[in-house]
Structure formats: structure tokens, C-alpha cells
From TrEMBL:
It comes from Calothrix parasitica NIES-267. This is Rieske [2Fe-2S] domain-containing protein. It holds the Pfam family NifU. Residues 89-154 form the NIF system FeS cluster assembly NifU C-terminal domain. GO terms for molecular function: iron ion binding; iron-sulfur cluster binding. It comes from the Bacteria.
Amino acid sequence: MKKIEELVEEINRFEAIISEWDESQRCVAEGLKRAIEDLHKEALTRMIKSFKQDSMSALKNAVRDEVVYGLLVYHELVKPPIPTLEKRIETALDAIRPSLQNHSGDVEFVGVNKSDTVEIKLIGTCGNCPSSTLTLSQLVETAIKEYCPEIKYVKAVK
């Protein structure tokens, strides 16, 4: 049984080859891909309907497999999980980390207070920098609010 990484690598290899073809050849390949995906989606939809009627436990077991789950998400037959607030905050901080690290600084997520306030800690040179207030408001706060619009305040803690 192949691992998901191997399957994705194989797909990427074929996409790289196809990307070098002329436009008419790429259109044919894309049309074939769409037709196969439509067939798979229809088959998966029917299978899910059958599982729902006969055995929900079989469907739940199937969805636990990362390849099956990924395919169902790809075909929009199940909804992807909604990331937690903490995960979205970490994603926002990861997006700005390179900029802070270029100045020998970083940021650490401390926690959420009152469900609308994020507490962070500026570390490294960012913690003692005279421009830390500007870094906090223009970089960190902007990123967090972009990923987490429900957050109203971002404050630095020591």
C-alpha cells in the first residue's frame, strides 16, 4: 500500500511533465483529468449514500484513513475541519515570523484572554526594541486579525 506522500509525489511528477506540453495538449490532459475526477466523485457520492443507509460505522472507519478523507475533502463530499482559534493564531504568527527573525527577534503565543484578546510575547531583539509597539500593532496585530477577525485586541506580555 502506497503512502499518501508517494501518491502526491507521483501526481506532481505527471503535472511537471504536462506543464511543459503545448496548450492544446494540456487542455486534452485537463479534460481527461476532469472526466476521471467527475467519475470518481459520482462513485464516491453513491458509496457514501450506500454507507449511510447500511452502515454508518463503515463510513466513519473509512473517513479515518487519511487518503480516503483527503479524497472526500478534495471532491467536497465532506467538510474540512475548521481550525481552532489557537491554530489560526499560530498560523498568523508563522506567517510573520521570518520578518521578525530577520531582525533576530520572534514572537510567542501566550494565550487568549476574554475570548477577544490575544496575549503574545515579543522575544529576542523584538522584546527590547524601541519600535516594539509599532511591530506589535502593524505586524503582529494585523496578521492575527487577518486570520482571526473575532480578535479585537492583541497585547504584549512580559
